Amino acid sequence: ACGPLACPDPKIDLVTENPAFPWQPGTATAIGSLPGTDPLEAARLIATELEDFPHLPELPARGPGADMIGRTAALLIDIPVETTTGGWRLSPERPGRDARRARSLLAQDLDALEEAFDGYTGLLKLQLAGPWTLAAALEQPHSLKVALADPGAVADLASSLAEGGAAHVAEVARRIPGATLVVQYDEPGLPAVIDGAVPSPSGLTRVRAVEEEVLRDRLRLVLSASGRYTVVHCCGQPFPFQLARGSGASAVSFDLALIRAEGWDQLAETAEAGLGLFAGVSVAPDLASRPPGRRAAGPPPAPGDTPAAMARSVSGAWRRMGLPPSDCAPQVVITPACGLAGASPQGAAEALKHVAKAARILPEIMEERSLWS
Known about the structure:
The structure is a single chain. By secondary structure, the chain is α/β, with parallel strands linked by helices. The chain is built from 13 helices and eleven strands. The longest helix has 28 residues, at 345-372.
């Protein structure tokens, strides 16, 4: 049997067997973040546990610049940023120490990825903050407002992120030329943007809701710039399925446990529209006891959840939507329900093992249901 990095190029078979989706049935991946501070160790873990669909790990425990917002903000073109006591803000000056540190951390991550995936020829996922979450997180300079409150600043951010994100994708493609890249844009703040619930830095006011057309256009600009298969990830509630479809996303990534009554129809419409579904079904065992408020609403999976139970939760959701059983395994990628930065190293590794096993079980379950349907 070949190792995780020595298998023949799967892209030829993928195009022949499943032209709609770039992965094979029975595939798992992760959201992005992991515990720890060693990028090479993280890259090797991903290469081992998620050999069919690895990703560029994020290690926010290293501090400012390794976090989702800092990493993405450092890629912006002609928009300098700096840290504050509460996060990141746009800077009136040229890029300073904070942005240089963020770029240095990302370069370390890419060096580790290049070493761990030398000669790799399969799928590889990258993650960046989406334009609306970025605009809601970045403060304006010399102001008690976030960038989201200024439509002009949002437009500039989206254009800059489109350019900077495309350059980042090109850099990864240069380092790992055999990889088929998938780009995930993380939008955990998007439901709050839609609802007009994003607070100012002081917490005293809220930014008014943004018009749907503007939401869609800014997101579409960023998604289309990469020229790759794109995923919109959101661990907030409710998931903006219609907005993701209208923005041209290739796939959506969500926590299956957070889908409520009105969300099932939207999820079914998204599946019928042909988008890939990244179904989050698990957290690391040692995350299940996190205090309330550390995870979005809804009970976390029980620590004893097995891969078979995770696969059945996906098949049960598919049946609830009334979709053909044979379409499930080719269209669905199984993931943890959220990032794993808050887990122990052992818990994170266990979560990756579980979702990979669950993904391998899913085609068998759906085949059985096809026979009985």
